[in-house]
Amino acid sequence: MPRWWSPLLSALFAAVAGPALPAQAEAGVDSALAGQRVLYVARHQYREDHHSTATLFQNGEINAGKFDGGSALRVIDFGAGEPRVQTLLESAEGVIRDPEVSFDGRRVVFSGGPRAPAATPWGERGPRGGAVSRLPSRAGVGAPARGWLRGGGSFFSSPRDYSFGQCNRHIMANLFRMDADGANIRRIGGNTLFEGHAHVMPDGRLLYDRWEYVDRHFGPSFGLWATNPDGTGHELIYGNNAWSPGMIADARVVPGSHWLVATLGSCHDRPWGAIAILDRSRGLDGTAPLRRSWPADLSPYLDRADVVDPDHGRSGRIDAFKGLPRKYEDPYPLSSRHILCSRQLEGERMGLFLLDVDGGETLVHEEEVLGCYDPMLLAPRSQPAPVAERHDLAAAEGSFYVADVYRGVGMEAVPRGSVRRLRVVEAPVKTTWTHAAWGIDATQAPAMNWNLTNNKRVLGSVPVEEDGSVYFRAPADTFLYFQLLDERGRMLQSMRSGTLVRPGETVGCVGCHEPRQTTVPPGARPLAMSRPPRRLEPWYGPPRDFNYLTEVQPVFDRNCVSCHGAGEDPSGGLDLSGDLGLVFNTSYLELRTKSPARWRPFGADEPEPLVMAVDDGPPQVVPAYSWGSIRSWLAQGRGAGHEGVEVGGEDLDRVFTSFDVNARY
Predict the structure, then answer these.
(1) Cβ(351)–Cβ(372) under 8 Å?
(2) Which residue of 4, 213, 595, 597 pairs with 221 in a disulfide if CB–CB is 3.0 to 4.6 A?
(3) For residue range 119-162, what is the model confidence (pLDDT) as tens digits?
(4) Exposed / middle / buried, residue 309 (Cβ in 10 Å: 0-12, 13-18, 19+)
(5) Distance separating the N- and C-terminal Cα atoms of the chain
């Protein structure tokens, strides 16, 4: 028995009947839960921290000890007679957390431990008692349990390939899977930030919540995603394009339907908020998919996904759900009418409630000191559908295709024939943290950019066919995004999210920012698909972290500083010299401060800024031609000659590209 379990040894006994349920069990409870057994966790509420993802408390984390110990794994039996509570396992010091019941209903998997709960191995226990066994996992630290895959394998979130949040110091986690015997651990997520709270859907895919952003505001960048068990086919399910909610988590499929139930909350809060039933047939964002919610009226807290506020005026909405008079979390759908959940009683203490779609909220159970969390039926359930593996782990690459880059939100403004190439850019993870920090909208440590936390690597580009199609190979398991370029290499439109392809996988899109419920027209065969996928043509050498000092400053040194250099009166008042400052160099500061640089509405009478960057842009899709080199004054017509200086070719392309990767420093 591992040493970390030793404080729990006194709890390893056959299940003991607990006290009778309080009198709040009413007729609605009897009808919905009659004959059922409900598993739940008794613990204290997590302490408030910087972000809704900051609840892992793993070793090495800045909030490793920021929890209150004392917890238990319990069962309520609603069989014949008076409902009774049964304790399976207790911990006096630690937190037992994240349980999930096996498909046969005979085992419970969970994580926890006496001091660093998420840093401990998983445990497993039979729901009627018996010994607790450590799962044979080599998963390492920080592995909240989430459950089984068809065939006996397990999936979990872990920071074993750790990285930091781009706007803070919290360690992030990604999705992994392993075989039933604990072997063959492999990462199945590739996002640069957080992937967690995963559950198996009836179709065999994993439904999970994901936090990630590229060239956009950090706050509202939380959505529901799905992936096949082998990590192929990552797909946006709901969210990602509105200021509020700032957090979406713990989604499950409502039995017998295509609906989802999830917690909608705030960015800077615990993973609680409102509970909502979502209907994806009505849309994938905003308020349209909501069929029912608790509380019933979420209009004061939710934003429409189609309303763009480019001036960041609504960025405070990422924490709108903090204003709820009562918080909910951990929804577990029993049917299309009833949902089990955890709900506030008084203060921060939580009880178990049964919600019904007619508005009823019935208290099922409460404890005197601890709160109640993670309710779920302790019963057999159907195995998910089998999903064939689509990867080839011997391959180093996969393939992407876009059927027609001109199809999508705002792309009607781009004349056909304008897009000549598609650029592929990697947004790598953040692996370091330093002091002091540079802060504007978010905290950057080390300082990387004027007002954006992403790093960038330009991997290369490929031609776009006459019909707008493109088909190319890309490195596997790499977080990528795409940009559309015109004949001069200027960016017309850009993704501001990320995607990945697994080894040997082929994945594609209908268009660029196209409605996700559309398909390629029947009988259409994109020209790009009539030939093998193209290789990326590199961008002036091998991929590397984009560095303004080495990629752009030499261009100014060769062409500009003789007039726009250090001195009492640089030409036009613009100093493009490369003198280093405490954070950024002189030319970079001049480009970012000489005129408004953040993205804003474009009126005909507004002056163009020197560099039009989107910075921490809004969550909604911004129009084509909105930012980057094509809207930056410094790149307008400069190649035609400026005061007798001709700048073109590679030099001009380097300047264009620096603006198009959001003026990265």
Answers:
(1) yes
(2) 213
(3) 333 455 555 555 555 554 444 434 455 677 887 788 888 888 87
(4) middle
(5) 51
- Residue 575, pLDDT > 80, answer yes
Is 511 or 596 the better-scoring residue by pLDDT? Answer: 511
Tell me if residue 241 falls in helix, strand or coil.
Answer: coil
Contact status, residue 268 vs residue 246, Cβ threshold 8 Å? yes
pLDDT band with cut points at 50, 70 and 90 for residue 568: confident
What are the phi and psi torsion angles at 19 (to 5°)? -70, 160
- Which position has the token pair 């339907």? 257
Q: Residue 304, CB half-sphere, CA atoms under 13 Å: how many?
A: 5
Helices vs strands, H then E, count in the chain: 5, 34
For 118, the token pair is 């998420």
Walk across the sheet containing 480-485 and list its strands: 457-463, 421-426, 480-485, 491-494
Strand intervals (E) in 51-189: 71-77, 84-91, 95-101, 108-113, 122-126, 129-134, 145-148, 154-158, 174-178, 186-187
Q: Token pair 């001195």 is at which residue?
A: 567
Q: Mean of the per-residue pLDDT values for the chain?
A: 85
Report d(CA 226, CA 279) in Å as an integer: 15
E strands present in 406-446: 421-426, 438-439, 443-444
Backbone angles phi, psi at 585, to 5 degrees: -85, 175
Longest dimension (CA), the chain: 94
Share of the chain above pLDDT 70, in %: 85
* Interior angle at CA 128, CA 127 and CA 134, nearest 5: 55
Report the pLDDT value the prediction gives residue 435, as an integer from 0 to 100.
85
Determine which helix (DSSP H) or strand (DSSP E) holds 30, and give its type and residue range: helix 27-33
Beta strand 350-356 pairing with 361-365: antiparallel
Q: How far apart are CA 345 and CA 22, in angstroms?
A: 14
Percent of the chain surpassing pLDDT 90: 57
Give the tens place of pLDDT for each residue, 160-169.
887 899 888 8
Pairing of strands 480-485, 361-365: unpaired
pLDDT at residue 514 tops 80? yes
**Cβ–Cβ contacts within 10 Å for residue 470, how many?**
29
Q: Give the torsion through C-alpha atoms of 440, 444, 446, 450, to 10 deg.
A: -40
